[in-house]
Amino acid sequence: MRKVGIGVAGVGRMGRIHAVDLVSRCAKAGLACIYDADRDRAAALAAQLDVPVAASFTELLDRSEAVVIATPTGTHAELTVAAARAGRPVFCEKPISLDRATTLVTIEAVEAAGVPFQVGFHRRFDPDWVAAAERIAAGELGRVTLFRTSLRDMNPPNPAFLAGSGGFFVDVTVHDLDVARWLVGEVVEVSAHGAASDPAFAELGDIDTAVVVLRFANGALGVIDNSRSARYGYECSTEVMGTLATARIDNPHRSGLEWRTPGAATRDIVRDFEERYPYAYAAELDAFAECVRTGAPPRVTGRDALAAFDLAVAADESWRTGRPVAIPQGVNA
Ligand SMILES: NC(=O)c1ccc[n+]([C@@H]2O[C@H](COP(=O)([O-])OP(=O)(O)OC[C@H]3O[C@@H](n4cnc5c(N)ncnc54)[C@H](O)[C@@H]3O)[C@@H](O)[C@H]2O)c1
Known about the structure:
The radius of gyration is 20 Å and the shape is globular. By secondary structure, it is of the alpha/beta class.
């Protein structure tokens, strides 16, 4: 089967993972071309992967059947709209924009262009999470009573990234908020507390540690804990308790090797999202390629991304005001 030729815009932390996956891991999607505003970075990766490098985003579109947008968040909307208007299906990293109105305009522009549009919530494609979601949806867990999830980075990203990230809740917690909607259902109220353990975050008006409490429409409660600098490693784990069963996804070890010495046993743990999700990042691009080929709607849509963004903004508001924020229902349909 011929692979869908995908161009990648932005080959920093995340775009490089996508480019490498398209070359080496994906079964249905292949790498057509790469483009980055930093020409040296693009040229170095193009040489390493032996793929063409475009001199502009327009040239990337010309050389690709579909595109991945992995540039800084503030550029996603403009590039997504340009790609959709050129008739190219778009896979866009999360979040779509730092601003609700722009997010909505982007979704509407893509819908008007009639091209597939998928957003990068990779956990929806990870085998463990998918298996849990299927069993929860099949009713095996009964009525969900409690959702608990942790997302913690080992080390914070560089200051230049942080400045354009949109802040902690929009950049980090948004992943857990998407998972909360996916596994449990719509959220009706968000309460959040945040702290800056590192003064560098306070100087940016941002935080590096947060706890978010959710109330779901179905009566379940949720708690999310997030950190930018867990120091011991990267953690992404979840638990969904129900009246019949509990689903738990723990962080896997980095390898199967356990090193035993008298009275101690040590195993490596994963250090970042690339090590934690080798399958999910490739699977989300294969699923996107399948949508490009068949025209089927993506598993994670722009409207899903908007709903998660709204919850992240509500968490931000709750942290700043110290009050719970009610979530209006049915606004993103
Ligand atoms: N899904 C995930 O797990 C995940 C993880 C990390 C980052 N992200 C998202 O991916 C996006 C990129 O994050 P990152 O950490 O890779 O950032 P990064 O700063 O490491 O990389 C961004 C790259 O885009 C390039 N760039 C900047 N403006 C550009 C433009 N207009 N056109 C082309 N290239 C441009 C930069 O030179 C850089 O190489 C962000 O939206 C972030 O939220 C998602």
